[in-house]
Amino acid sequence: MNTDIKTAVRPAIVMTILFAILLGLVYPVAMTGIGQMIFPAQANGSLVRDASGRVIGSTVVGQAFVAGRYFQTRPSAAGRGYDGLASSGSNLGPTSKALAERVTQDVATRRGEGVTGDVPADLVTASGSGLDPDLSPAAALAQAPRVARVRGLPAARVRALVAAQTETSLLGDAHVNVLALNRALDAAAR
After folding, report:
1. 3: pLDDT strictly greater than 90
2. Residues 6 or more apart whose Cβ sits within 8 Å of residue 176
């Protein structure tokens, strides 16, 4: 009977080791190599560099912009805000008092910055990952008067920058990458 157990268990152990090597080592190394060859920028994090070559951000991971002269991103629930090591939503549901208080406070902050009319939802609610790099065009345009005022630029020029940076996703949703928009804003101010 002992021999029967060995003959029954041996194939299971061999297959486990084989698939661990195949799927735990060979496949990830092959996919990383293919990704590096075909899409090197994306495989390395879609990093954005300044003129000196210094990394200033990523097109796929949001970052906080707090200075008034910049377009600000949506709130982040990731750690202390845009913390890549703590990427997650807040897990606060629509009936959460804490969420309602935070959104009310964020709406008041946006009103204090000069946002009039309806406040776009993405200016006061966090994304599922807490690291969303994009805003809706409406959220960017709501901030345009503040940015124009602080920078001393014509509001029409700032709105034109928003329009120029607006892209459409594969699913047809329009969005504005905040890092790209702020870089275009800095270039326009020179």
Report:
1. no
2. 71, 134, 135, 136, 137, 139, 140, 162, 165, 166, 167
